[in-house]
Design a protein that fits this description.
This protein has 614 residues and is of the alpha+beta class. The protein is built from 20 helices and 25 strands.
Length: 614
Amino acid sequence: MTDSDIVIRGAREHNLKNIDISIPRDTLTVITGVSGSGKSSLAFDTIFAEGQRRYVESLSAYARQFLGRMEKPDVDHIEGLSPSISIDQKGVSKNPRSTVGTVTEIYDYLRLLFSRTGRPHCHNCGRPVQRQTIQQIVDSILKWDEGTRLQILAPMITHMKGEHVQVFETARRDGFVRVRVDGDTYELAEELKLAKTKWHDIEVVVDRIIVREDTDRGRLTESVETALRLAGGNLIASKLGTSTKGADEDLVYSEHFACVHCDISIAELEPRNFSFNTPFGACPTCTGLGFKLEVDPDLVIQDKSLSLNNGAITPWARSGTNSPWYHSTLESLSQHFGFSMDMPIREMDLDHLSVILYGTAGNKLEVSHQTQKGKVYSWNTAFDGVIPNMERRHVDTESDSVREDIARYMTQRACATCGGARLKPEVLAVTVLGMNVMEVTGQSVENALRWVEACRTGVWPGEGEHDGDAEDPLSSREQSIATQILKEVEARLGFLSRVGLDYLTLNRAAATLSGGEGQRIRLATQIGSGLMGVLYVCDEPSVGLHPADNDRLIGTLENLRDVGNTVLIVEHDEAVMRAADHIVDMGPGAGQFGGNVVVEGPIEAVLESGESLT
C-alpha cells in the first residue's frame, strides 16, 4: 500500500464478503467478473457512494438541507478517496427540452456565437435587416390608424430578478412620472416594492400620444430620441387596449435592427433569444418543444361502422353507449342539423361530422337534457366540438387521471408555426454562413465540425453536403469575436467524435438516446470540463459500441486518466481490460457465491490466475 492508493477495508455492502482492497490512484482500473459477482456493489454502492457522501458532508449545514441525508455504505474504512462522479447508463435527461446540444453545452456556445456574429434577416421578406434611424421610427409610428392611443416606453429592465430600486429612483430624478412594471402602469409617486425573487420587466413611460393628422411631429421625435437614449437604442411603442382581449399591443423599435420594407423591428440580439427554453426565443405556439399534443380524430372515432347511438365517439362512450349528458348534446345537434343518430359514421355527411368534431363555430343552438327524474332542461349555447372540448379539458383539468385519459386520444404533431424548429421566426432568420442555428444543430457531429472549419476559413473542407466557398462568410472583425467560441465548440464536438458518436445530430432529443450513447455523451462532457483529481466511476461505457470504435473510447478514457484523474470502470470488454493499468476480478460466482476478490493487479496477473473465469 502507498499514499497514492485508494484503500478499502471491510467492505460488506450487498454480497461483498468483508473484502480489503487497494486501488492505485491516477490509473485506469477495471472491475470485472461474472454478472452478480459484486462489481457494482464495490464500484458504485461502496466507493462512489462514500466519495459522494464525504463531499456532501464537507458542505455547510445550510447547503446540506437541500441535498438530503446520504447513508454511509457498509464498510469499515476508506482512505485516499477523491470527489467522485458517476457516469452510468441512466444519467441522460428524459426532459423533452433536452437535446445532445444542450446536454454537452455545445448549444450554449452556438447561442453566443449567433447573437454576436449572426446576420439578421427579415423573417417576412428574407432581406438583411438594417439599422433604423430616428426619423424612420417616427414615420412608422405616424402610419398607425387615426386615433390610436400609444405610450412611448424605454425598456430599462427585461426579465431580471431583483427589487430594482435604483431604476425607480433614477426615473424620478430625471423627471419621469410613470413606469410600466410587468405590464401594469404605476405612478412613480407611489412606493413601488418588487419581489426580489421574481422576474420583472420595467419600462419608463416617456410620453403618451394619440395618432392624428395634426400630431406634433417634433414632440414625437423628441420622445423617441429620449427613449432610445435611456434604453441604449431600443424603445417600445405600446398601443393601448388594441388587442382582442383589451390588452396593450407592444411593438419594438431599435436603432440597431429593422426591415424598412416590411416595417418590422427586432430587438438587439442576445444569447437568450436563441434559447427554446425561454419565452424570448421559444416559439409561442409550442413553447419551444417543437411539437404539440393534438387530439387525433382517428383515435376519437376508432370504428367508423358504428353510429352515434352505438358509441362511435369513443371518449364519450361508456360500455358501448354515450353517457347521458353527451347523448343529449348529440341528439340536440342531430335535430338542429338534420342528421340521424343511427347512421354509421362512414355514411355521414362530412359537414355534419365536422360539426360534431370541431363545433358550431360560435353559432348557438337549443340543447335539451332530460334528467333521471324525467325533468327536461333547455338552453341556447354554442357547441365547441368533441376535439376542442377534449383539448381544453386536457389543459384546464387539475386531475392527473383525467389528463392521462384524454392523452390516450392525442398524438404528437410538428408545430405548425415553427415546423418543429422550436424558435420564433425572427430568431430563425438569423444566419451564420447562410444557416440558422437550428439548421446547424440539425447536422451530424461530423458535419458540424466541417461547419466550424468553414466559419474559420470561409471554405467548406473535404466533401459533404456543402463544398466550395461558404455563403456569406464572417468578416475579419466577426472572426476575432468568434475565435474563442469556435474553439470551445470544436473541442466538444471533437470529444463526441472521439467516443464514437460522430453520427448523432445535435438536435437529437436526449430521451431517445440509448444507455450507452447517453453514458458516452456524459463522458465527453466530463472531458470538456477539464477537471483534475477526480474519481470517475463508469458503468460499461463500451455497451452498444461497435468493436471497431473501441480504440477511440479507450483513448478517451486514457485522456481522462492522463490529465490527473482516477478512472474506475465496471466492464466486461476484453479490449478495455487489456488497456487497463489495474484489474480487479470479482467472483468467483454470482450472488452468495461471489463478493470476493479473485485476483487483482495488471493484466498478466489475471492471465496467470487459475481461479479467474475472466
